[in-house]
Amino acid sequence: MSLYERRPARPPRRASSAVLTRGEPGSIRMLMGLRHPDVPAFPEFWAFPGGGVSKEDIEYARKRSGHGDDIQSMESLVTLFREVVEETGLSKSEDGGWVIVPHYVRKKLIEGPGAWIEALAEGMVYVDTSGASLVTERTTPPLAPVRYTNRFYHIHLGKYAPEPEHPPGRSEFTEFKWWNPEDILEQWEQGSARMAPPQVTFMRDIVDRCREGRGILEILSDLAGRPPMGPHKIEFAPGVECLPIPTATLPPSTHTNCFIIGQGDELLLVDPAIQDGEGRSIIVERLNELESCGKRIKSILYTHRHTDHIGDRSRIKEIVDVEVLGTSETLAAIGGGTVIKEGDIIDLGDNLPWTVIETPGHCPGMVSLISKSGLLSADNVTMVGTILVPSADGDMHQYMNGLQRLSALNPNLLFPSHGPVCAAPMRVLSRTLKHRMERHAKVLNAVKGGLNRLGDIALSAYKDAPDAPESLVRDQTLSHLRGLVKEGLVIEEGGVFTAIPTSGG
What is the sign of the dihedral through the CA atoms of 53, 51, 256 and 431? Predict the structure, then answer.
């Protein structure tokens, strides 16, 4: 059975985020934190304080709610106040002001999930929902295995507010800053500040209205009257928009990232992997929006020939019939186009050229693209699951060499074909290469230890992954063995693998 299957995206969990403001009209600032470099999601990104709705939040909200109350909103608000206290130390006081809770309270809050409820019961912290207004709701697109429907609530702390403080132990944030929305959006556009896509579009909503001469508090009040919901533009970086397309792909991924590249009127469409009507609708809707703004697709580029990247070519051709770019191997699979190769420059006239990097290990003819914005890495690395190097047409030796070449480019950000944007490209590239080199060594050691048949070598090399599908384990072991043959470390004769003695014995 093929590992490439169409699966639905996981349903989102619920979360709350706090848009905390302070100051007077004309000098309003928003509190954001710089996420710790070691957190799993969006390290070194600026974000609002917040987190997921817990079981304890739900239990407390339901006990506190009266007949006719919006229970789900109350649950979200309890989460909001808990996260604000835990991450910033800020809490409502008994007289309605905002204070930093004592150190002993914060120590108590990190003891466990029940500590928050105990602190509420003992009057150490307070939940006062009267000043919190829902200003938007954003749902993580289906490119991530863990998704959230995140409610953003605005709370104005007044003209003056205490400075946030980090909790005992390691914090999710390394730094707090009161930002002017225009300043952080400008720094994001220049590449000197990072934000996740929901924060980017939210800041745009505010800044666009600020440029009409309106104040931030007025804008947030208007948003609270009619909070924007539903899908939003997914910007990984300036000029790098992502459209997750549902595809039959390798688990745990359920979608392939189609990219719209460019900041001017001419755009590049990368891997529009339409396989059905749902994917077609996603592409058509977005291209119609772009066309209404005077933008057009100049070319389509396919990173490689795998079906979860090419999709149904006839469907995309019906929508946009433009020049197709790809390597000779890729174009041979889709019926022709303009050949691209190592070092070619794709210039869209927006002062952000992209350079073609040939990285054929995962698939013959696969390319990546690099610019000052970051690295569009195709199927070299992923933020979800693992990358396979198929024994049928992949090349493990070239794959590991490609990872080394991409690491040498030291990209600013990484835009994978599956999963969210990566803020720490060197960490992910190094981790992926290290994993493959360790597996390579295990396969070689199995052969050196006297195992000479594929099945036995696979069992030995993958004994640390007992739940991995047998067919996958055998296939990846064979890819490693062929790489070792290419490197002159192993020979194969009639399905029997033997290690070549080194000069040192």
Answer: negative
